[in-house]
Design goal:
Helices cover 69% and strands 6% of the residues. With 235 residues, it is mainly alpha-helical. A 3-stranded mixed β-sheet has the order 1-3-2. It contains 8 helices and 3 strands; from the N terminus they run αααβββααααα. It has one domain. The protein has helices at 4-8, 14-37, 48-58, 88-91, 96-113, 117-145, 150-187, 196-228, and strands spanning 65-69, 76-78, 83-87. It holds the Pfam family Zn_peptidase_2. The chain crosses the membrane at residues 12-31, 124-146, 152-173, 207-229. Keywords: Membrane, Transmembrane, Transmembrane helix.
């Protein structure tokens, strides 16, 4: 029987390293892309906050507040509190990139208002994903310590799969929000025809971070299955 210590340092750890590299590359790409187009001041001269307020008004959404928060690219929309939060790099900036990011978050607000079902599904999965992320590894380690107790190990792997499910459901939600943002900016007067492709590049780069997160989570799950998923002879 393979010892627990050896199992925890199995060579399949390279899968985690690959996932980390993919995530770092995606993060670096989105930061560099945002920085590039953050230097282009929009011809309309509106800030990210003003753009968000305009888009929400034009979309008939009156119950969502817009606030500024600390950080860089920490923008988010909270459907439970109806608050659209824009980071400092977005809220007060008049750049094309900032307007694009603000429009993307408005896309989530529009999804919420229209009861976009993948967004509802993602919200429903959040508690399971949180439990899976926090409880899976302790259960697997406990199972390994207890002479590779397959019941505990399989439960742990099953719980971790909810984290991957959350990442997969997130993909259509984020891509749809970006699509809505592009449509809004193309139809409105916030950006010129020449500026819209710049926003598309920024949002495409941002979407790749979610793809990278899904891939990294899949590789972690694959490693757990390869290490602990098979039946072992405990005698």
């Amino acid at each position: 029987m393979t010892s627990p210590i050896f199992a925890l340092f199995d060579p399949t750890y390279f899968l985690v390293i690959i996932g980390l590299v993919i995530s770092m590359a995606a993060s670096g790409y989105v930061n560099s892309t945002f920085s590039k187009y953050n230097r282009y001041r929009s011809q309309s001269g509106v800030t990210g906050t003003q753009a968000a307020q305009y888009i929400l008004q034009q979309s008939g959404i009156t119950d969502v507040a817009v606030q500024e928060i600390a950080g860089n690219l920490t923008d988010n929309y909270n459907g439970q509190t109806k608050v659209l939060s824009l980071s400092q790099a977005t809220a007060q900036s008049q750049s094309v990139a900032a307007i694009g990011v603000a429009a993307h978050e408005c896309g989530h607000a529009v999804q919420d208002a229209k009861n976009y079902w993948p967004m509802r599904l993602r919200t429903a999965i959040v508690p399971l994903a949180n439990i899976g992320s926090s409880a899976s590894l302790p259960l697997i380690i406990l199972g390994v310590i207890l002479s590779f107790n397959q019941t505990l190990i399989h439960i742990g792997i099953f719980l971790f799969s909810f984290a991957l499910l959350f990442q997969l459901v997130t993909l259509p939600v984020e891509f749809n929000a970006s699509r809505r943002a592009i449509n809004i900016l193309s139809d409105g007067g916030l950006l010129t025809a020449a500026e819209v492709p710049m926003v598309r590049r920024v949002l495409t780069a941002a979407a790749l971070t979610y793809v990278a997160a899904a891939l990294a989570t899949f590789l972690q799950l694959l490693r757990l299955v390869l290490l602990f998923g098979g039946n072992r002879d405990d005698n």
